[in-house]
């Protein structure tokens, strides 16, 4: 068991090294120094308290999305629709804020309602993908992808239509909400400790749900073998729906944080691609909750650190995305190689 | 097999440990580079599009080079500052990255960054801020706020657009002029309307039937194309050219209408385009380009940066027009117009006459003018104030296209 886990880790570290190697080659090909690029990215994400706080700003939604995806993956579902669930969370949060804009309720209560609203919005959108899967026979990958497009279209419609700025039709987004509707941020930093706490609570919740509960056990049974679980008397389609709802609520919370603590309004790209990035994180950690925090932090650091590349080295920031993509590819490849060769050796 | 596998795994672990052992040395490296002998004044620039977009952002970028050259200052910049390209970031956050690299003054180059520039300026009173195209510190404006470290700079592009509209009217055979609009706001309404006023003036002056002029605006939703989010400007240009609009004036950040005009012309259908923003924008397709009204941000940026350098900075609203003695002067004229190769000699002469009229004081923002829905805007002989022009609430009567979002 220990040997297996050590081998596993070694494979993943090997994949990490290989990915850095590939990106180094790309950098050398364009005449840039790989060491300088990695150093700038490292300093750009951990070089100061302010920079680390920016990393955390990206880490919070990414971790929430990853936590949610661990639940759907456990149930054997590819919830590509998570991106749209983040968007719907943001839309629902914006809706709640707008509803209470002129009310006399204490702002703290409005923020709480807005975040709960976001979770509900995300959960309902996920339920839609779930219903399509369970009752419509639509594969959740295709259903989710379709719903992602609908979610984007809905955002654009709202920004251009009912929620537009007076006299303006622009993708710039809705009018920013007043300061008191913002989740409280740390002084001089942009990170909200409340958001961070919510994200950590989310991953801890998922960890215990999957490792320590009867619910989690049955969910994994459904994920491992749907038919066998059904024959054993587990209400399988209900468990699929539960997993969609939980994932949607967590993704919705990510969208809510994007509105309540980062952008303070609705913008077209409010989900910032965290849904898709979360899928990569979940695959990279082989669906194990314990690794979610360090790997999500690593990905967030790459995103923030890569901002330095165009400023200091005139390189494109998308290098971070290349590194992330290559890394996931190598890890999956390593997994495949191990199953093919490692498995044969063991038997 | 299993043994070799384990060996490979161990080797990788050792390698990775070796890599992490390198880390401390790596983090110490930047220290020596951080102490140059005499530091030049550093200013930062946030560009909404790519620095080489052949339009709005490139005009700003080259103004930054101009400031470097004139004042010996140093520019650091970050381009593609928009939520589609830099997901999960905000302009004020990115401005702080430039400050961390030593910038003492930050230029926000897009109306999309207006709220962020206000937030940033208030949070960093020691850093000077230039917000291009905004009106936050215009005392006579509708959105005035006292922000001592912020200055607004904009060019009176109304003139450039009038010249563009005139060139279009002098060239069109069908009497149909298309305007490729970005998003809808005060600025874009007044600029599209200026193009219309110039077109109308030159169309009628050339003895054409006023009723035969069609001027249509189609908005794409942002300053440039964002796939899946905005309407495709190439498609919009194509729709114009294939439905009888033989001249399309660009109001967006890059001249995609030109390449489309070139395509149409190659297929045997003479089509023309007018670019925008950047002095050399016609180069994208010179044979179909009638000209380009452009911004020359350099002189005003140099003034503002210099005042920050020598301590005479004052928060102000700058709305500079062309230098009529030479609208293409690099050192004095904020707004210019470069004629394109496709402009006929005859049209060129007429256009020069129009520019001379403008220089002589002709003001097309004079009544009687109605808004698009027929509401009186300016009475007969009434000249629009700066506020009336800046905050134009609708397109003008006679123009087709949306005045506001549906």
Give an overview of the whole structure:
The complex is a heterodimer of chains A (347) and B (406). Chain A has 347 residues and is mainly alpha-helical. Chain A has helices spanning 2-29, 34-46, 49-74, 82-99, 107-136, 140-160, 193-212, 214-224, 226-231, 236-263, 274-284, 292-305, 308-313, 319-346. Chain A folds into 2 domains: 1-32 and 318-347, no CATH class; 48-314, ABC transporter involved in vitamin B12 uptake, BtuC (Orthogonal Bundle). Chain A is built from 14 helices and no strands. Chain A starts with a helix and ends with a helix. Chain B has 2 domains: 42-155, 3-Layer(aba) Sandwich (Rossmann fold), CATH 3.40.50.2300; 158-294 and 339-400, Response regulator (Rossmann fold, 3-Layer(aba) Sandwich), CATH 3.40.50.2300. Chain B is built from 11 helices and 15 strands. In chain B, helix 4 links the parallel strand 3 (105-108) and strand 4 (128-132). In chain B, helix 2 packs across helix 9 (298-309) and helix 7 (233-242) packs parallel to helix 8. The chains are: A mainly alpha (347), B alpha/beta (406). Chains A and B meet through helix 1, helix 2, helix 3, helix 6 and helix 13 of A and helix 1, strand 2 and helix 3 of B.
Short description:
Chain A is an all-alpha fold and 347 residues long. In chain A, 75% of the residues lie in helices and 0% in strands.
Q: For the largest interface in this structure, which chains are involved and how many residues does each contribute?
A: A-B, 58 and 55 residues
CATH fold label of the largest domain in chain A:
ABC transporter involved in vitamin B12 uptake, BtuC
Strand content of chain B: 15-25%
**Mean pLDDT figure of chain B:** 91
**Residue share in helices of chain A?**
over 70%
Estimated helix fraction of chain B: 25-40%
Query: Total domains of chain B, how many?
Result: 2
In terms of DSSP E residues, the strand content of chain A is under 5%
Low-pLDDT runs of 5+ residues of chain A are: none
If you average the pLDDT of chain A, what whole number results? 91
Please name the CATH architecture of the largest domain in chain A: Orthogonal Bundle
